[in-house]
Design a protein that fits this description.
The complex is a heterodimer of chains A (about 200) and B (about 375). Chain A has about 200 residues and is an alpha/beta fold. Chain A contains 8 helices and 7 strands. Chain A is globular and about 45 Å long. Chain B folds into 2 domains: about 250 residues, Rossmann fold (3-Layer(aba) Sandwich); about 100 residues, Rna Polymerase Sigma Factor, Chain: A (Orthogonal Bundle). Classes of the chains: A alpha/beta (about 200), B alpha/beta (about 375).
């Protein structure tokens, strides 16, 4: 069974905290934390259908293209910002991360790992990787800036972001031995809690 | 759909924001649908500046369709099969509620230009008295567009416990400089009409029709988008047999002439001045900051802007959203394409309907 992201990052979200979720989708992650942790949550989403689903759940949502503005939420004093499986779709991921760490002390980032062995096999065979985590073909994907676990951690260190916590996931979103010890080769996904130095 | 129309008299009077007082007043209201047993399905609709209590359905007397009939009715976005929907004519209006055309009880004469300045806050206060009169403790939803959206916002600030959800559409927390400027041009055209007589035209048995007409024509330009005007009229010439006057060349001219003429038949000039002043003077932040004012809000807000609206563009709605977010208000902001400029809030569209429905029904 696939473990939900809310279970994985559950311990990272303090009760009653103020949380902003960039690319919140249908709002189910926020909804769960609103119910279980009494957070003040806001979602940012661009897709109309997903916005409507957030509204149905009573999750406050703001229609916004993340590429066009993260800055304007700076004055709202968020405790945590979340960017789940979206960072690689942005025009300037490093700028987005900087801005998220300006509007909140901590930031949860999840990203697919292009270093995962099946991706490498696909490339060796001369084709763009298509895996359960990267299901779209090259011409349909929204991903602009795919990276490996090592690439992301290198960016964090060069930008001065501190990695407070990290969890590496296997294909079934479990936390397997191989993914934990050799993440760049065996993790399909990295889940990070980052902060400022 | 059955329309219940009622004139309600309030003996207790109302202290106005300006310091004046109305010793008693009437509110003309319409309602649709049935109030349920625990009175939890009540919806209050606030009208825009030239609107009135006739929000939905076909009025058998006038033959007129309600101004928000696209949105309110059986199985519509605001479903009268499920909700008890109330709309009242604002104080200072000219459609039945106490206003400049009413008789001032203390003088026995028509108020005319002496009708006291009214404000968005005064309207909300008068609607609160209506709420008590109807025996409703909490509106499920209070909504409106434009000046009606300002009232919905003010409701959430003035009476946080008395509503669960507010819909603020094509509105702003305060009018912009440009809004005030446009309104002043329309007021000036009324004031400079030879038949205005400094606001005492009723005594003279006349009406500043030309001024009102020009004011409305300007208004209509601001309510539409450039693109929509292009699509609707383009540079098409008006057919000779349907020209309202010999001076007309283009369809758009005929349209504005027609709308202006119709409006000047039905609307009162002093009301026009009062309503536009109320719009200009409104500032949700009052003497504090918008964040401070909004920190009182307990209900959920749905803020909708329309991309083609240049009178109250979506960014103005976003300002409300951002201020609410700072003070932890549960506020949602959506920007919709809306072809018809500022008027977009009046028209149904699949997305607009879905958003409103989801919000009203949300847990």
């Amino acid at each position: 069974m696939t473990i939900s992201l809310s279970k994985i990052i559950n311990d990272w979200i303090p009760d009653n905290s103020k949380v902003i979720d960039f690319g919140c989708g249908d709002g189910s992650l926020l909804k769960e934390f609103i119910d279980t942790k009494k957070i003040q949550g806001y979602g940012i989403e661009i897709d109309h259908k997903k916005i409507q689903e957030c509204i149905e759940k009573g999750v406050p949502v703001i229609q916004q293209d993340i590429d066009k503005g993260i800055k304007e939420f700076e004055s709202s004093n968020f405790d945590i910002s979340i960017m789940a499986s979206s960072i690689q779709c942005l025009k300037n991921p490093h700028v987005a991360l900087r801005r998220m760490l300006k509007l909140s002390n901590k930031c949860v980032v999840t990203l697919p790992n292009l270093g995962y062995w099946r991706c490498r096999v696909d490339l060796v065979l001369g084709k763009m990787p298509v895996t359960p985590n990267l299901p779209s073909s090259w011409y349909e994907t929204e991903n602009l800036h795919l990276c490996t676990i090592n690439d992301f951690e290198k960016l964090c260190s060069s930008e001065g972001f501190v990695i407070n916590k990290k969890i590496f996931l296997s294909p079934d979103r479990a936390q397997g031995f191989l993914a934990s010890y050799f993440p760049n080769l065996f993790a399909t996904e990295g889940v990070y809690l980052i902060g400022r130095e | 759909m059955k329309i219940n129309k009622e004139l309600i008299h309030f003996n207790e009077g109302l202290d106005l924001e300006s310091g004046s007082r109305l010793d008693s007043f009437d509110l003309m209201i319409e309602s649709y649908g049935q109030l349920n047993e625990d009175k939890s399905n009540a919806v209050l609709i606030c009208h825009a500046f030239s609107g009135d209590h006739h929000a939905a359905g076909l009025d058998p007397e006038s033959g007129g369709i309600g101004w928000w009939d696209n949105i309110i009715g059986p199985d519509k976005a605001i479903d009268t099969n499920k909700y008890f929907v109330v709309c009242s004519n604002n104080l200072g209006g000219c459609s039945g509620s106490t206003g400049p055309t009413s008789i001032n009880q203390s003088t026995g004469k028509v108020y005319g230009k002496d009708f006291p300045i009214v404000s968005v806050v005064d309207w909300v206060n008068s609607q609160k008295l209506l709420t008590d009169f109807l025996g409703i403790t909490k509106w499920h939803f209070v909504a409106g567009g434009s000046l009606g959206g300002m009232q919905a916002l003010q409701w959430s600030i003035s009476f946080p416990d008395s509503l669960s959800k507010a819909g603020i559409f094509a509105a702003a927390a305060k009018s912009s400089t440009q809004n005030i400027a446009m309104n002043e041009v329309s007021r000036e055209s009324i004031r400079k009409d030879a038949n205005f007589f400094d606001g005492n035209y009723i005594e003279k048995n006349t009406k500043p029709r030309n001024g009102l007409k020009a004011a409305r024509m300007l208004g209509h330009i601001t309510y539409l988008s450039e693109r929509h005007m292009n699509l609707k009229f383009g540079r098409k010439f008006q057919k000779a047999d349907s020209k309202l006057s010999g001076e007309i060349d283009y369809e758009v001219e005929n349209y504005l002439q027609y709308k202006g003429e119709k409006f000047s038949d039905s609307f009162d000039a002093n009301s026009y001045i009062l309503m536009t002043k109320a719009m200009d003077n409104y500032d949700a932040s009052a003497s504090e900051s918008l964040e401070d004012a909004m920190s009182k809000i307990l209900c959920r807000l749905l803020i909708i802007g329309f991309e083609s609206d240049w009178l109250y563009p979506p960014e103005r709605g976003k300002e409300i959203q951002l201020a609410g977010m700072k003070t932890n208000v549960n506020c949602t902001y959506v920007s919709l394409p809306g072809e018809q400029g500022h008027d977009s809030f009046l028209f149904a569209s699949e997305k607009y309907d879905e958003i409103i429905k989801s919000f009203i029904e949300s847990r």
